[in-house]
Amino acid sequence: MNAVSILWPMIAGACLVLAAVQLLVRLHDKNAQANLWLALLSLAITGIAAAELALMLAGSTEDFATATRWIHVPIFITFVAIVRFVTRCFGTARGWLGWTVIGVRAFALVLNFAVGLNLNHDAILRLRPIRFLGSTVMTADAVFSQRTRIAEVSTLLLLAFVVDASLRLWRKGEADARRQAVVIGGSVTAFVVIGFAQGVLIHSGVVAMPYLISLPFLVVVAAMSYELSRDLLRSARNAEELREVAESMHLAAGAAGLAFWRWEIPQDRIWVNPQGRALYGVPANTPITFERYLTSLHSEDRERVRRGIEGALTGNGELRTDYRVKDSAGMEHWVEARGKVDFNGGGKPLRMRGVSIDVTERHHMQERFRLSVDASPNGVVLANAAGLILLTNRRADEMLGYAPGELLGQPVGNLLPERHRCEHAAPREGLHRMPESRTMEAGHELHALRKDGSEFPVEIGISPVESPEGTLVLSVIVDISARREAEEEARRHRDELAHVTRVTTLSELSGSLAHELNQPLAIILANAQAAQRLMAQSPPDLAEVKDILTDIVDEDRRAGEVIQRLRALLKRGETKMLPVSFNEIATEVLHLTHADLIGRGVTVSRELSPELPLVAGDRVQLQQVLLNLVLNAADAMAGNPVGFRQIQVVTSLEGDVARLSVRDAGCGLPEDVERLFEPFFTTKQHGLGMGLAICRSIVAAHGGRLRAQPHSECGAVFHLEIPVCPQQAAWS
Ligand code: ADP
User: Boundaries of each PAC domain copy (predicted)?
Assistant: First the structure.
């Protein structure tokens, strides 16, 4: 045994082990192409080592020539492996240069087998033993062929290829890239140069030594292995981290009841974690296909989910759906699933990955919320910040004339007539800025718009609702048609009653009114008779007749006015709110009651404020109130001695309220003044007890008030107060 026969088999053995290791790595990881090339390189070096050993131990020139010929096979493989390894590992190599290297070397290989003894020798003259590493090995005295130049060119090209790729990698500037450039690029370059130099020296006869390619290339292989094992270590570390992440995900999934799933679409195979199997009620070893998955869904949800998934596969690849499933224990769950589709380059769906989560609790909450909203007797509409409807309850759909769900996504403004829309937008915008509940005030009656275009009166309460989607607006719509109708009905009844009591009151005045009418009629009659007589004279006294006719016209007008006032009061009319003057009302009522009051020995003094603004009111109804107050005052003083029966009528302005007061010196008021205003309260023998009750309701309908108070000296004073019209200027 000598050093050569120990060392070379060792080189071959080491390379074989390396090749085996790299092949194993490649077998486990389809992407480990660099490891494959390194395995090939190691195998080639094994071959070179074997051929070198054969050369050194050659027994004849023929053996030497044959071994030289065959050594070119592993050398060619070495070239290919280095080019492919550098290309794969660096990612910066020039492809064409790599293929040129392989092409030239392949040409050399062809020549090696096709021409002469081999690539290097034209003839081998004799074997020459030399001492090498303490052993006797063979070299040859030979005629070297010019074909060797081709081998040298290919080696130089390989050098250029590796140096170029290394420089380009170095220029990337990253620390890892630079290290690779130095370790792999540097070692390959150094040992190719050494091999090249050695070959040139041997071929030119400068030195007589055996070929030593395998030894330096063992270092190259070691450098390459070192680099790849770093990657291997890194991926092992990554794998460990990944395992930890997966474990945490697994724990989190268990805690949150999350189901992870993956659907390999071309194979129609679905993988799902154990939580998912439990949730979908699929036993552990049952394979899951798409159809099997669909059967685990509630039958009513299947078609919808199928459409959703098909939509994701043909559309943007996003899936978001919910459905019911029965778990392994047969309990129904609501599940929300979200997934994403991976497409290949041609847009064909490869797999869909996603998670499913048990949202039963949330669903029940939503259901309870929906039920309670649906049970509301009022309409409920929830809109987002953009004013689009997100939810309506059954009552809202009914009152607005829409089918359930039809309003979703529509602008909330569509529920209001055109004229209210900006009024609605304003409070809604305000709500987003300053979240607090409020009632929509349109300044007049608010109406909602039905689908068929008809309108109905409503009251709308608006509240902000904070949600993950931002501030939402909850509108509660109350249909007040029934209330409006009831109010209208009440108003009609009040008018009716007011009319009846007016007629009753006037009937009390009928005697004095007849007298009031008799007077002008008697005067008219007397004047007419006088005129007849004057006309019968010859010649007739026409000047006197003219005076008489003027008197007749005046008296007729006076009687006409009395009748007109009576007719107005007796008329059954609708309430008409117009600007009226308290002073005019006082004057008219005092005219009407003039004769009656004189008959009762009552005197009237009036203090009418000349600057009194107008009030909005129904002239006839306000006259009725005053008439009632004046007649009550006269009644209250019936027991007073004549000369102590005086009524004072005063109008005044108190702030922005017009006041009409009637004061008497009568019997005074009971302690509980409010009783006077109760219906049917009367102290009079033939009284109805409805007068003041009706008067108060009339005044309340005018937005004012009617109150009584005892006078400081004697008797009572009644105040009729109504706010003055805000738009005085427009009316005056
Ligand atoms: P009626 O005149 O038919 O009794 P009213 O409602 O007009 O009905 O009046 C109710 C009662 O209020 C009267 O019966 C009377 O007792 C009392 N009353 C009304 N006005 C006066 C007044 N000026 N002074 C004292 N009592 C009054």
Answer: 319-371, 442-492
Q: In what order do the strands lie in the sheet with 603-608?
A: 603-608, 646-654, 657-663, 716-723, 705-710
Instruction: Write down the pLDDT at residue 424.
Output: 56
Q: Per the CATH hierarchy, to which homologous superfamily does domain 257-363 belong?
A: PAS domain (3.30.450.20)
With contact defined as beta carbons under 8 Å apart, do 499 and 623 qualify?
Answer: no
Query: Mean pLDDT throughout 136-165?
Result: 90
The tokens of 491 are what?
Answer: 């108003």
Counting ligand 1 atoms within 8 A of each CB, the residue from 502, 630, 632 with the most, and so the one to mutate, is 632
Residue pLDDT, tens place only, 379-407: 999 998 888 998 899 999 999 999 988 99
The topology (CATH level 3) of 3-234 is Rhopdopsin 7-helix transmembrane proteins (1.20.1070)
| Residue nearest atom 12 in ligand 1 by C-alpha distance | 676
Q: Is the CB of 662 under 6 A from ligand 1?
A: no
Instruction: Give pLDDT, residue 675.
Output: 92
Lowest mean pLDDT among 142-151, 316-325, 431-440, 546-555: 431-440
Cα–ligand 1 centroid distance for 665 (angstroms): 14
| DSSP assignment string, 210-253 | ----HHHHHHHHHHHHHHHHHHHHHHHHHHHHHHHHHHHHHHHH
For the stretch 48-69, pLDDT in tens is 999 999 988 888 999 999 999 9
Task: State which ligand 1 atom lies nearest to the alpha carbon of 633.
Answer: 23
Q: Does the 376-479 domain belong in CATH 3.30.450.20?
A: yes
